[in-house]
Every structure is written in structure tokens, then in C-alpha cells.
Amino acid sequence: MREDWEEILYKDAVYKISTTKQKLKQKEYSQFGEYPIIDQGQEKIGGYSDDKDRILDCKLPVLVFGDHTKCVKLINFKFIPGADGTKVLEPKQGIEPKYISTLTHVLVHKIKDKGYARHYQHIEKENLPLAPLPEQRAIVSKIEELFSDLDKGIADLKKAQDQLIVYRQAVLKKAFEGELTKSKDLLNKTKLKKIVRFSQGIQVPKPDQKLNFQKGDVRFLRIIDFTQGKDSPRFIKNPGVKYIVSSDDISMVRYGASTGHICTGINGAIANNIFRIIPTVQLENKFLFYFFKSPYFLEILKKRVKGVAMPAISFGLLNDIEINFTSDERQQNLIVKAIESRLSVCDKMEESINESLEKSKALRQSILKKAFKGTLLSKDEIEKCKAATDYETAAVLLQKIKNL
């Protein structure tokens, strides 16, 4: 923080506005209404109401802070406050609303997440850097300018990510149409049941069964092991050979939110909500893998999957799906290589985009750090602030705020 700045306790920089009589419970929200309801949720407006007596009487703009969620909203229109955890804070005269709003966002990242506990009690004990009022405005303006440029760059990067997804799908589509390797005439429509069979996993062991989940011979593989991989490994004794998969085998999630997810890369015994896909002819595993990732297959699966609450795949559902297939392993390998050569380029681009996105996060934090250390503005910009008609030192401003 600059030597000519001062510090002010957060709770001394705002008025805490009581919402006891106006707050509205979520069950009383309407989808439509004349007055917006601002609560601690992620969305700026939580709902609507026509009850004008609930409108909060306060000087706008105000900060709405989610005591449980740590959401920060700067509101400059009349509203009804939501119940439970909605803190309404009015910046005191001498504190630029956007300035303290930005500082509050910084504090939110600084304060450790306490889950559904209260967070404002920690925020209000923090010291804030207090700059002269013209500097506060200039800092906010410069942050917004820099963030605007940064956001445009991030938008371009995310657009490029979306384009990579489309390109990957196009590669897989063309691959199984024979267009990548000019092998269209060599591919024949063949039903899956003629080239693979499906093997269901083992019934999930119950606690009362004599199956040790802590120590055992074989890892017990559940959906979470393939989709998230964050859970501690479990083990099972003597599951039977037919349930065992190697890291090269292809399996698929049968039902639930991850229906159709391809499972590979782990050795173990699969649970019964996963099934193994076993080739019955000479078939390159990666050829099959990429087919199950193709938009053609996924679109058919989407149409055929049954169960709204719990989507499910049966063997019969898959058996009659047609694949553009060639029994020539050389052609299978050529198609796989053509796919992977293109997808490897995508992977490198994806990696570069992700690195740039991470750098943008670091740059955003760097901008904020400089802003509130007093080093974001140039000497000329600071001199311009000092020439403003309402300029007064931070020490004088702090004293005036304390006397309010």
C-alpha cells in the first residue's frame, strides 16, 4: 500500500442495512413480478414479487453479500432482499461503490471457504486500503479497462476451445465415413453384434458379504473411478475372470448421468453398472474406441437410451447399431493413425489455450494486487487525480468517514 494512503476497517467503510422487515423467503418468490428479489444466490436476480412494501429503503447503489455463498453483487436499482444470508451494505460517503465492490471480491478469494457457515464476520474484520476519492474512481476505471481487454481475450480463447470440440467431432465423423484415408469403398455397414459382445460387470458387493474393500487381490472399479478418479481405490477378492478388464480394454457406463461414458486405462474388476465390450473378430481396440466417441454413435445412443430419471443402456439397444467396418486390420490402423495425427494437433492447441487461460487468471490477480498496493496508476494519472476539484488526502478522507 502506498505511504500516502490510509487503512480503514471494512465494517467502518459501510453501513449494514437491516432487512428484517423486508426480507422474503425463497418459497415466496415468483417467476414474474414488478420488483426484483436480490438474494445470496449465483444469479443476479433470484426472483420477483409484486409486494411493494417489501422494497428495501436504502441509498443506492449498495453491495449485496452472500453470507453463506460469498457472492458479491453491486445493485443500483430498487429491490426486495431475499432471506437467509443476504447482507446489504451501503458504502459510506467517501467510498466509491465500485471500489469497495472490487475490494470485496478480492477479500472473498482471500477468506477461506467455510462451507455454509457465515463469512461476513471475517470480511468485516479486514483492513482496506483507502485512496483519495478521485484515485478510487481512476483505479476502478483502469481495472475495468484492463479487465475488458482481458475478457475479450478469454472469450476468444473459449471460442477456440469450442471450435476444437467441433473439429474433433468432424474428424471422427469423417474417419468412419472413410474420408480421412480414402477408404470409403472398403467400409461396410456392419451391426455391432457381429463384431463384439458385451459382458456385464459384477454385482456391487454388500457390506455383509465376505468381500474385503480395503485389501484384496483385484481393484474394484466403479463409475467414479473412470469419470472422476478422486475416490479412494477399493478392492475385491476373487471376482471371477469374466469381470476383469485390463487398461487396454473398452468398457462403457450402462446407466445414470454418465451413460455411454467410455471406460479405459485401469486394471480391475468392473461393477455391474459398467459393461465390457469384447471384440469377436480381429479388431483394433482404438478403432472401436474412436467409434464409440464419434458423433454418429453418440447421436444414436441419445435417441435410444431409455429412462428419463435414470437413463439406461441394454445390450439389445447396442446390438443393432451399425458401424462402418473393415476387417482389414491395416485399414483399421490407417484410420486410427489418421484420427490420432489430427487429434494430437488438437491436444497441443488445447494445452496452449489452457495455459493462456491460466495466465489470464494470474494476470487478473496481478492487476488487482497492483491496484490496491497503489502501483496501478501512472505518475501522470495520479497527478491528474490530485488536480480534481474533490481531491483531498487519504488521511483527511479517513477522518471524515470516521466522523459520519
Notes on the protein architecture:
This protein has 404 residues and is α+β, with helices and mostly antiparallel strands. It has 3 domains: 1-130, Alpha-Beta Complex (Adenine-n6-DNA-methyltransferase TaqI, Chain A, domain 2); 131-181 and 328-404; 188-325, DNA methylase specificity domains (Adenine-n6-DNA-methyltransferase TaqI, Chain A, domain 2, Alpha-Beta Complex), CATH 3.90.220. Helices cover 39% and strands 18% of the residues. It contains 11 helices and 19 strands. The chain has helices spanning 10-13, 97-110, 120-123, 133-175, 223-227, 285-293, 295-304, 315-319, 329-373, 379-386, 394-403, and strands spanning 6-9, 14-17, 35-38, 47-49, 62-66, 72-75, 80-81, 86-91, 127-130, 188-191, 196-200, 218-221, 234-236, 244-245, 250-253, 262-263, 268-270, 274-279, 322-325. The strands form 6 sheets. A 4-stranded antiparallel β-sheet has the order 2-8-5-6. It has a 4-stranded antiparallel β-sheet with strand order 11-18-15-16. Strands 13-12-17-14 form a 4-stranded mixed β-sheet. Helix 4 runs antiparallel to helix 9 (329-373). The longest helix is centred in the C-terminal third of the chain and has 45 residues, at 329-373. It starts with 5 loop residues before the first strand and ends with a helix. The model has no long low-confidence stretch (mean pLDDT 91).
